[in-house]
Design goal:
single chain; 258 residues; alpha+beta; 8-stranded mixed beta sheet; 15 strands; globular
């Protein structure tokens, strides 16, 4: 049976995700706590893995109830910041600015979050997809693939690339617990998945190998016309019913045909 296997949000954009048992669907359509905070440089660019690979070297944890961010550096120095207060966000921004090199500020958005596509919702991938991608690269674990691809909703009990079927002409939707979700677009990937999530070291030949295997394994049930290229993986979705409801790990997932 298809179920929500995991829910993961990324409280500070670009930093580590946090696995949670339940996630409220915000009125803006994204998951509560996801990309709630973001660092910006002096030119209003968001600080993430494309801005600096230093983000991969930091280990972070976030406590949703208190909005406390814990950061550990490779040198094993540990800092904690209260992101629930303006003063705490200013302190965090100053620390990250010193560490990353730059004049940074931190902003908070509880309505939608600092997501790349503010008119869309959570990202979705299947466990089988992560297992398949991990098998393409020597030494890559499923957890490494999970951290590289950074999905919000992971669905088990379905085949690899299950999420590809929800885009294109006459694509179905799916019910996940109390929410009805439809696909919007395949997720085109950037440089971040090619980097080791622990160290930031690039995996040589990642893009070329990814393209080769994605082409070979592209599912027959997917609409090729909905994909501009093969360097895509994961579904960017939209919640069409269920704003204000709560998704939970273990909730059933059912395809809704048109």
């Amino acid at each position: 049976m298809a179920t929500i296997e995991r829910l993961r949000v990324y409280p500070v954009k670009g930093l580590d995700g946090v696995e949670i048992d339940a996630a409220l669907v915000r009125e803006g359509g994204t998951l509560e706590y996801d990309r709630e905070f973001a660092l910006f440089d002096a030119d209003d660019h968001i600080v993430n893995g494309k801005w600096t690979d230093r983000v991969h070297e930091l280990r972070t944890d976030f406590e949703p109830e208190t909005a406390e961010l814990r950061v550990e550096t490779p040198e094993e120095a540990v800092e904690t910041f209260d992101l629930g207060s303006e003063a705490g966000r200013e302190t965090a921004a100053a620390w990250f600015g010193d560490d990353f090199g730059g004049d940074l500020r931190m902003e908070r958005d509880t309505r939608v979050g600092h997501v790349d596509r503010t008119d869309m919702g959570p990202s979705v991938v299947s466990t089988a997809t992560l297992e398949e991608v991990a098998s393409w690269f020597d030494g890559m674990s499923v957890e490494s693939a999970r951290r590289r691809l950074r999905a919000n909703v992971e669905v088990s009990g379905v085949p690899a690339f299950w999420e590809d079927r929800f885009v294109g002409e006459d694509a179905p939707a799916f019910d996940a617990g109390p929410a009805r979700i439809e696909g919007v677009t395949p997720c085109a990937r950037c440089v971040v998945p090619s980097r080791d999530p622990e160290t930031g070291d690039p995996l040589e030949g990642f893009r070329e190998r990814f393209l080769e295997k994605r082409r070979e394994t592209f599912p027959e049930f997917a609409d090729h016309g909905a994909f501009d290229h093969y360097y895509t993986l994961m579904l960017i979705a939209r919640v069409v019913e269920g704003h204000g409801e709560t998704l939970r790990a273990g909730d059933p997932v059912d395809v809704v045909e048109n």
